[in-house]
């Protein structure tokens, strides 16, 4: 450096709202003589640039705020494929600096706020979509105090999502990382930079002055060093802003060229950006990961102006995507997970309620297949979604429509009305419809129930045949000359003697599998016995078949077997859940019947041509659903499905039916053996997963569902 250099400065405070006054102060300083204009404002001042260009006085810009660290943070976030981030800084001016630094150069959508209050924490919680990453930028004290507040407000919930960016020169060994409750990223400037900036050894202690003051002092010293390398030139220029026709100063171009040459070897503490006329600190950024079990681990190191790069041999695991998944309670799809002893709903470590069911298992399987984390969200208002008079939606559909959730997985039926505001994912994972459930009638039991298999006349005929056969066997044995009693010479061995008592016993035991025993010897007796045995075989076969059919039919018999039969009869009352989709179905069908009736009436009454073509013997429009809705209103819709099943179970005479969602009815039938399904499923609709309109997730989820179908996972779930 040349000796005898004397420095003096003139500070101009830039007021963006009154630039004319600030420019007047700048001109006043220039008129007294100036060698260089140093712009340390966070937003380049165009008037100072114009003045520098006209009079040829060099202008150098530099950054004294968190901008360089914000740029380093942005490089890291983009390497993690971040789409959005919430950044918390110390002050409102830092908000402006951060936004300007990222504007036009970052692909990450950011939300920047000064500090973290209860109100801003609430805003972060309700922000949709939820930020993929969070960052706190400031000095070490501010960063960790803000982190504590974030933990208190339950914002810290996922690994590696929070990034702590420390702007001051503090050694990591002096930081209490035990405050971090989850694996966290930690970014700072190499603390050894402070010693290099003040031109001291690496083991120096950083002076107790603000970082910005240290950098600015070092910048002025460096500029003077570069000036000393120039040839003799007119360094100081005095210019009157009212008369800018003076000859241009030649120092500007020479100085810029000298800056470029001097910083070319990357060994200086500053580096030159020609198109911005900026001298920026050549900071070295260090990125760490902190895990409570492993401590602090350095994973990346790079210099300002360079691209982010990991250390050799270091890899970072890809971060999982995070989605808020909306669902609504429906048996057996989504159920509260209850404590087996107390019956209270269980919650996780963060105090969020836990759920179980078919859809919860499906969500867990999808999260494994698509590698994402999730949070279950139930709607604050409504169920699966109903269109309101003002055109908006409530429930699961409404949350998905406004961005409160990213995906909807539940017993959500696919309708044309819903497809206008959300997108459904094909293939559909289940089919649903409407079904009727009724209680199995309690059959009266009796000790002589088997006697009812045959009519009384048949039983009397069997008894008469037994008595008559027994008497005829005795009569033929006694009077036939060929019997063993009357012809002992033909049967020298002992033979059975058919007395009247023995004859009746023979006729009776012939009905048993053991048989009647030894038959008569006479041809007439044997002919009678053969005919009687044929009668016995036919009677036993008839009784056995009728008994099996009687017991089977009695067990399976239901009072009605279809919706049409239910509508035609009057003994069985029936109902639905009030304001449910099933209730709305019958309301809509009645409206359709009424509309068709009105149209038919108008056509027939207003016909001007041949009236004969409208002459019919049967009314062409059914009024079935009108009758059904009248019966439902007479019985009174129930508030929920649990009440409906309870009422069905209480009617032991099977005189009450419940019309409801088929999946829930089938599930309840498997749990309650007193209930039985009636008829076939009608008004079938598919259950489908839904996403926001135009969401890129639609194709990914569809592909994952196809894979699960190939693995027969959905079938296994349905069989549970």
TrEMBL record:
A Pfam family assignment: Lig_chan-Glu_bd
InterPro entries referenced in this protein's UniProt entry, alphabetically: Glu/Gly-bd, Ionotropic_Glu_rcpt, Iontro_rcpt_C
Gene Ontology molecular function terms on file: ligand-gated monoatomic ion channel activity
Keyword presence, Phosphoprotein: no
Cellular-component GO terms for this entry: membrane
Superkingdom of origin organism: Eukaryota
Ionotropic glutamate receptor L-glutamate and glycine-binding domain segment(s): 332-402
SMART domains in alphabetical order: Lig_chan-Glu_bd, PBPe
Domain Ionotropic glutamate receptor C-terminal: 337-720
UniProt keyword annotations, A-Z: Glycoprotein, Ion channel, Ion transport, Ligand-gated ion channel, Membrane, Receptor, Transmembrane, Transmembrane helix, Transport
Transport keyword on record: yes
UniProt family annotation: Belongs to the glutamate-gated ion channel (TC 1.A.10.1) family.
Protein name: Ionotropic receptor 8a
Organism (species): Manduca sexta (Tobacco hawkmoth)
Source organism phylogeny: Eukaryota, Metazoa, Ecdysozoa, Arthropoda, Hexapoda
